[in-house]
Structure formats: structure tokens, C-alpha cells
Amino acid sequence: MAFILGNCYTRQEIHDLTGGGDLQTFLPNSNGKILCACLSQEYGPGIRPVTLVGQGPTVQREAEMFCKQAEAVPVFYKKKANQWEYTGMFLPEKWTEDPGEIDETAESAGRINLTKIIFLRRIDI
Predict the structure, then answer these.
(1) Confidence of residue 58 (pLDDT cuts 50, 70, 90)
(2) Is residue 30 a part of any domain in this protein?
(3) Is the pTM of this model over 0.85?
(4) Nearby residues of 112 by Cβ (< 8 Å), 6 or more positions away
(5) For the chain, how many structural domains are there in total?
(6) Which of 48, 53, 111, 115 has its CA 20 to 30 A from that of 59?
(7) Beta strand 37-39 with 73-80: parallel, antiparallel or unpaired?
(8) Domain of 40: which CATH number?
């Protein structure tokens, strides 16, 4: 079964359809491969799709894995509790660890402790 653009899925459904990974992480992975991205920040027309990377060894490891991956993944944005909207297939296009850019993005997103921003490119348009 393929994901349908705009439809919402539970984390269990995403897990089952992508082939596994941790249900709690934002970048579920298996065998060194990111399977999808489950993101909580806002996404929509005029908002550039990004992954905001926080702190912690697991988060850092998954972000590095994603940046090195050449295969697109399905991306989901949280709409409400356990409802994740499928928004398409994306690749990491570029990323930054520039403190100025991170501070500006963190402030506008209401986030703290960001370490990296991964800019995504949709490939299934």
C-alpha cells in the first residue's frame, strides 16, 4: 500500500508500512537507513520543509544518517495526537549548523537547543 498525499496515519501504521524503526523517534530507521520522517513543526504552502534537529546522541546520529542518505523518504507532519499527515517524498537537500541561522530559525519556531537544520526537497511533484 502506498501512502496517500494529505491522508493521516497513526505511528503504528507508518511503522508497519515503512518497515519498522522506533515508534518514538522523529527519524525511524532500520539497518542504518532512515525509513521516514515524522515531524511536529508546521508545514504548508509558503513554509519551507525542514527538519529541526535538537540535542542528544540518538537525535544526532539519526540526523547524520539522514544527511548522508541518497534515498527519499516519506515525510509526515503531526496534525494532532497520533495523527500524522503524509506530505510526500523528500530528500535532504542541504543542512546547516551555522549558529546565526539556527538561532533565527529556533526563535521563529519557538524551539531551543537546536543543533542543525536539514532543508528538505520534495521529489514527487
Answers:
(1) very high
(2) yes
(3) yes
(4) 106
(5) 1
(6) 48
(7) parallel
(8) 2.30.280
